[in-house]
Amino acid sequence: MPPKPVIAFQGLPGAYSHASCLAAYPDMDPLPRAAFEDVFAAVRDGKALYAMIPIDNSVAGRVADIHHLLPGSGLHIVAEHFLRVNHHLLVVPGTTLEDLRTVESHVHALSQCRRMTRELGLTPVVTADTAGAARDVARRGDKTVAAIGSALSAEIYGLESLRANIEDEEHNTTRFVVMAREPVSPRADVESVTSFIFRVRNVPAALYKALGGFATNGVNMTKLESYQIGGTFVAAQFYAEVEGRPDDRPVAYAMEELRFFSHEVVVLGVYPAHPYRFEARRRALEAETRLLP
Questions:
Q1: What is the E.C. number (predicted)?
Q2: pLDDT for the residue 233
Q3: pTM (2 decimals)?
Q4: CATH code for the domain in which residue 135 is found
Q5: Strand 123-126 with 173-180, pairing
Q6: How many CB atoms lie within 10 A of CB 264?
Q7: For 246-250, which contacts have Cβ atoms below 8 Å and span 24 or more sequence positions?
Q8: Are residues 105 and 74 in the same domain?
Q9: How many domains does the chain have?
Q10: Which residues of the chain have pLDDT under 70?
Q11: Which of 152, 180, 208 is the last residue of a domain?
Q12: Strands 236-243 and 192-200
């Protein structure tokens, strides 16, 4: 039998990135790496076929520094995956709620479970990541300490879940992009997303003019984020996503206008839209309809 293809992720076994790999690519072997740069290198060096990279969360916002790292990764976005984040209160087997005094996890996981923490009167302790917190609780065997992490973490490190789905927000979802050495070209009959970065010229109304082509050509822009580059406060780079492909006529016209008013327009990937997008759009339309008089 040939070896199974490998997908790399950042973090320890049991991290939510690990869970995303198993959900999206159950037939691939997950490969943990300490840093995002190590994940990118694993794909570039041929040790992994794909990289699973978290890009933003519906509660915490974008993943810190990831927009700086994507352009220099040398890889292409070839897919996306949305993972519903279900946090668990993980403890050493035999622990009761009355035993607990502190709870450890990544800062975002702690902030996403504030209600439960206050209800139980626990002292939150910030750690580097959720899977690391679960591993450390298991190693210490201290029944006064719990970790907030995934069900996968409990399985890997031999912990029990005292409470499931303890996150404050029911919509808590993380979006991942899947990256590979070579770009893909989705079929024409598949709804697609194009991710790209650009810098506008440092002149008045440059951003307004650069984005005008998307409005006039009827292209839906689903994401636009800015971040500083070059150690200055006058040069901003933008990360954007639009529905469609660069060779679709409306998108092509819009991108042509963008390039006229910008420089360093770089397409990071063209890939199929995940079904979650359509479900989220349906729910949003239903909510808007309920608000109508």
A1: 4.2.1.51
A2: 65
A3: 0.91
A4: 3.40.190.10
A5: unpaired
A6: 12
A7: 246/194, 246/270, 250/217, 250/218, 250/219
A8: no
A9: 3
A10: 1-2, 230-235, 284-288, 291-293
A11: 180
A12: antiparallel
What is the pLDDT at residue 67?
A: 84
Q: Indicate if 109 and 62 belong to the same structural domain.
A: no
Structural domain includes residue 284 = no
**Residue 206 pLDDT:** 85
CA distances in angstroms from 196 to 22, 68, 246, listed in the order given: 27, 13, 10
Residue 282 within any structural domain of the chain: no
- Domain interval for residue 61: 6-83+175-180
Mean pLDDT, rounded, of the chain: 92
Residue 62 lies in a domain: yes
pLDDT of 156 reads 98
Does 144 lie in the same domain as 99? yes
Q: Is residue 283 part of a domain?
A: no
Question: Contact at 8 Å (CB) between 30 and 22?
Answer: yes
Catalytic residues: 174, 176
pLDDT for res 51: 98
Paired tokens of 224: 């636009």
